[in-house]
Structure formats: C-alpha cells, structure tokens
Amino acid sequence: MAKVSPNILVVDDDVVILKFIEFTLKGLGYQTTLAKNGKEAIDQAKSQHFDLIISDLYMPLMDGNELVRRLRQTPEYQHTPFIFLSGNNEEDTWIKNLNDGADDFITKPIKQKIFISKIKSHLKKAYLRKDILDSARKDDISFEKGNLIYCANRIKPFPLPRKHLKTNITAVYSDSDFFMALQDTNTWGIIIDDKANWAISILDKITEIVSNHIPINILVTDADDMDKLESLMQSKISGFLFKNLNPKLIIHQINSNVQREHDLKSKYLSALNSAAKRSPIRFENEFQDTIRDYNIQILHQPYNKLPGGDYYEIIDVDQNRKILILGDVMGKKWDAWFFVPAYIAYIRSTINFFVNRQELDFVESPGKFLDIINEYLFKDIQLTEVFTTLSIISLCTSSNKISIASAGALRPFLYDGIDKTISQLNIVGTLLGVVKGIKYRSLVHEFNKGDKLFFYTDGYTEAVNDRTGEMIGDEAIFYILDNNKEKEIIEPKDVELELTKIYNVSKFDDDRTLLLIQRN
Fold this sequence. Notes:
The protein contains 16 helices and 21 strands. By secondary structure, the protein is of the alpha/beta class. It is globular and about 85 Å long. Mean pLDDT is 82; it is low at 135-140. It comes from Labilibaculum manganireducens.
C-alpha cells in the first residue's frame, strides 16, 4: 500500500526554483527536503530515506550527473526514481543523463501540470514495484535461501544462538553493510541490538525503507528502562527481544517470526503465480513454430525470474504469412512489465485493424506500421516518457520474403546460406514515442534456403565478462553465430550456453530474448 506522504529530496542551487517546487509538492501533501548542491544532497540521503529525488543538472561543488552516479552506488537508492531538471534540450544530454542513472527529465522553465503528472507517475510506479518485490522477491522461498539480518555492536556483539535457527543469519556492523545485506533474497527479519548505536541512529530511515514488509525487532539489554523502550516504540518496529531471557525462548520467538513471514510470502506468491497464468501476455520461456519450410524459435528469460520489459508476439495472418514482434520496454522486472500490456494492446489492435486492408501491405512495408503505432504512443506517453524498442518482422512463404522495420532495436544478424557470410543488417530507427511524425523505413529481404536471421535484446550484449569486467557486445553474438552457422537448425539454448562459457558470463542483469528465423 502506498504511503500517505512521500518524502522527496529537491536539489538546486537556484533558491527560487527550490521554493517553487517545495510549494508545489507541499500542495500535493508531500514532504520535501531541500539541498543547494550535490554534497548537501548526499548528506541528507545518509540520514533519511527519500521516495523520489529531483535534481538540477548543473550545480557548483557537485553536479547532477555525479550526484546520481554516487546515489546509484548505494544499495538503498539503486531504484529510487531520480528526475533531472535542465534547460538543455539536446538529445545527447538526455541520453547521458539516462545512462548515468536518471529515470526522467523535466525541462526548464517548469510547466506545473507536466511536473505534477511526472512526479505522480514515478511515485506510483515506484510504490507498485516495491509492493510486489518486497512481498515476493523470489520464487524459491525455502528457509535455506532466506536470511536474517543482525545489526550488531562491532566491539562487543551479543552472541545470538544460531544452532537451532530455521534460517541463515548475517551479522552487519555498519550502515553500508546493512543496506548491502538487504539486497539479498528473502530477508525474513531484521534484529537490531540496542547497543549498535550506528543502527539505532538511522532506525527511522531503516523502518521507512523496509516499510511493513520486513519485521524489525530490537534486542534489548535492560527490560526495565522504560524511557528507552517508549522511545523505540515511537518507530515502526515489530517488537522486542530481551537479552536476559533463556536462549531457547529467544530462538523460539525468532523462529516463530520467520515462520509467519514464510507463510505470508507463500500465500502471496501462490496468488501472484495464479494471476500470471491468466495474463493475456505471452511469457513462455521457450517457443517454437513452423510455417512451411521456415523454423521459428524464441528463448525468453526474464531477469531474476520476474517478468520484465522484454516482450514478443507471433501473429498468424494466413497459411503463408506470419507477423513477429520483439520489443523491450526500458527498465527491469516489474517496473518495466507494468507497461508491457499497454504496448501489446496498442500493437495487437493496430495490426488486427490493418493486417488485411489494402492501404497497408505488411510484407512490403512494416515501417508504415511503426509510423502509426509511434503516433499513438507519442500522444499517450508524452508525460511519462516510458520508451520502448520494437522490431516488427513480416514473413511471407509464398514470396519467400522477410520484411523488417526497427524502432531503436539492435541490428539483427543475417547468415546468407548461399554466400556463407554473416552480416549485420542496416536497419535502425528512433525509439517509439520519442519523436512525433517520424518515418520508419522497411528492409525487404529475399529469404533463401539455408538463411538464418538472428534477433536479440540488450540483455545479452550488456552482459559482463567476469574476467575482463567489460560488456560482451555485438561481437560475442557474431562469434557464436559464426561458430554455429553450418548447423541445419541453431538452438537458442545452445547459443546462450556457449555464450556464457566462452565469454565468462556468470549472470545476466537484464531480461533477454533471442529470436531465430531459419529456412531449411
């Protein structure tokens, strides 16, 4: 459930703008904290929790880009909405801002209606994301995979008996260690020693971040110190554990709390999985289809097993024609997935309307479809500016032609079965919903026996080589395809397995999708 009064940090060296934003946000019932530069903002973020951050781009001492980079390095602010204020309308500047970690930008002079709409939109998305992820961090919720966080006094930690605990326990001795541990899967609870002054001093910040989804218990030294107990009860804690109790009673109380959390998450995950199965959106991890001598295979892997921004769709036109779409909403996991149904709805309705109409030939000009969908999306999302890439592929077996149009997607690879060569097709275009009235081009290619067409999303190219610390890029895709080009049918799962082995990729940090079209 969303909080009644979000806490927003506003950073700008212009006092007039600070006061204007403060007045606007307070009019919405939001709490505001003001800072005149990035250094002040960092200090404020250390002492309290913010639900959203608004920052000027150009400031003395520390500019907005350095501020967002610094905040994204701290676990508690990795996903906090960050919005830039800037009078710079250059596209290169926006791209740099987004790459540095910003979620959005508002141009100066500030238009109050647009400003309010964006703030509400980002807060809503943040709360939706937090509600879901906090209640169900992973589909495996066994006790062995879970964790208790124990905030202890470094010099003299109280020895919690671990032998009979139902789950693991991680002792932390600083705020940075705590927030790092909080990123682990399934935190069943937090125990804070009242002698751990570093944790007690940021207790309000901790309770704000974990909200109501992780119970917090204070380990109390003196059960008769009512002044201290009453002070602690003012914070949103769940209860107390008393050091003078028999260790068996302490263990029993901790295990009871863990069991309760486990039962609640199990019920929530069961309901969530039931809802996902009824979703009209395609989320099969593996998909295969054939039409005449064409073979279509898709491998779709959501990030951390949670639905994300990648999406695909296969539309049967008739016995000779199929339309394939592959898209990627910017973002990860649920915060991107929330927008996928809207995009799919636009795409489906538009295709269904035009697919058999003479004025739009999908085989020859899928780019015209992107022209249309771009106009719809531009009108609908110009306030929230949630962008998506999209490739549309029209396959016609009667003419043996494949037509491709792209909106910001990665360029696909083509293996020519006759020439035995691999090339990256020169088909590019602007992200959907960014520029009004843009015209997308179509690339029409005759597809011969032995040809292979290879589409992929950036979850693969942005994977990191563990040995070099660098992203593997398009070159890795080319290398794997070149290794397997002589196979009659390339299997997407084999491509991914070979990619991880050769390029030392131990994990993927984004949704990823492979789409292969092969003619036998």
